[in-house]
UniProtKB/TrEMBL annotation:
<dbReference type="GO" id="GO:0016020">
    <property type="term" value="C:membrane"/>
</dbReference>
<keyword id="KW-0444">Lipid biosynthesis</keyword>
<feature type="transmembrane region" description="Helical">
    <location>
        <begin position="206"/>
        <end position="231"/>
    </location>
</feature>
<keyword id="KW-0808">Transferase</keyword>
<dbReference type="InterPro" id="IPR048254">
    <property type="entry name" value="CDP_ALCOHOL_P_TRANSF_CS"/>
</dbReference>
<comment type="similarity">
    <text>Belongs to the CDP-alcohol phosphatidyltransferase class-I family.</text>
</comment>
<keyword id="KW-1208">Phospholipid metabolism</keyword>
<dbReference type="InterPro" id="IPR043130">
    <property type="entry name" value="CDP-OH_PTrfase_TM_dom"/>
</dbReference>
<protein>
    <recommendedName>
        <fullName>cardiolipin synthase (CMP-forming)</fullName>
        <ecNumber>2.7.8.41</ecNumber>
    </recommendedName>
</protein>
<dbReference type="GO" id="GO:0043337">
    <property type="term" value="F:cardiolipin synthase (CMP-forming)"/>
</dbReference>
<dbReference type="InterPro" id="IPR000462">
    <property type="entry name" value="CDP-OH_P_trans"/>
</dbReference>
<dbReference type="GO" id="GO:0008654">
    <property type="term" value="P:phospholipid biosynthetic process"/>
</dbReference>
<dbReference type="Pfam" id="PF01066">
    <property type="entry name" value="CDP-OH_P_transf"/>
</dbReference>
<feature type="transmembrane region" description="Helical">
    <location>
        <begin position="120"/>
        <end position="145"/>
    </location>
</feature>
<keyword id="KW-0812">Transmembrane</keyword>
<feature type="transmembrane region" description="Helical">
    <location>
        <begin position="165"/>
        <end position="185"/>
    </location>
</feature>
<keyword id="KW-0443">Lipid metabolism</keyword>
Length: 246
């Protein structure tokens, strides 16, 4: 017959209890750190999604200036989430789907509302823009081309439209022409490099840091010109400037 030994008393019992508590705390801390590592990039994607939904609400209330700022913040978050996922070795199918959904919301629906679709033609243009972003995301998801995009990435199109809006103070004609050009670029079958701003040369990291400073701290004119120059350089000189090898 098995007779359990009595629990340790005195200093031995205190030592064992302290040891168990310390080990359980370490296990809890390890679990928390692992959870943060696996979901840091997903957190950035969720923040991008929240920025997009907030931009939609601002546009519905005709607060287009705030909408533009939120779109530019989403642009910076989108560039960061992939870099964080690769850096922490936390890429997953869930993260890819969450990133696509956030991109569609922020750079598709929210960006299309900047066109102020109040008439039939403006409404059709906004719908065409959303469908172009949808087709662009679906095409890239099934292309299977590593480190290369097929068609202009929608974050750059959104950044260019938001910067244009701030610069021209919401001129509908200019925005409509710009959106039409962006639709053609997104549906184009040309190749664009995976810029890897935060995983490449130091000057590219400085460009990203400058974007953060411009969007968060500088006047709207300076921020819009900065983001316009950044997006335009990627669109016009994708491989000459933004290739991973340059």
């Amino acid at each position: 017959r098995f007779c359990p030994s009595p629990p340790p008393r005195g200093l031995a019992g205190v030592f064992q209890a302290t040891k168990k508590l310390f080990l359980s705390e370490r296990a809890g801390q390890g679990w928390m750190l692992e959870f943060i590592r696996k979901n840091a990039a997903n957190g950035l994607s969720v923040a991008n999604l929240v920025a997009g939904l907030s931009s939609v609400l601002c546009s519905l209330n005709r607060q287009y200036q705030y909408s533009c700022w939120l779109l530019l913040v989403g642009f910076l978050l989108d560039l960061a989430d992939g870099a964080v996922a690769r850096r922490l070795n936390a890429c997953s199918a869930l993260g890819a789907k969450l990133d696509d959904f956030a991109d569609f919301t922020t750079f598709g629906l929210a960006t299309a509302l900047l066109l102020q679709p109040q008439g039939v033609l403006a409404g059709l243009l906004a719908i065409a823009y959303v469908l172009a972003v949808f087709a662009r995301l679906c095409f890239f998801s099934s292309a299977g081309i590593p480190f290369t995009y097929r068609g202009l990435p929608c974050p750059y199109a959104s950044s260019l439209l938001a910067g244009t809006f701030l610069l021209v103070d919401g001129n509908v004609v200019v925005l409509g022409v710009t959106a039409g050009v962006m639709i053609l670029f997104m549906l184009d079958r040309g190749f664009y490099p995976h810029d890897k701003v935060l995983e490449s040369q130091r000057w590219k990291k400085l460009v990203y840091t400058g974007g953060v400073v411009a969007v968060l701290f500088l006047p709207s004119t300076v921020a819009s010109v900065y983001c316009l120059a950044w997006a335009t350089s990627y669109i016009v000189f994708p491989f000459a400037i933004w290739s991973c090898k340059t």
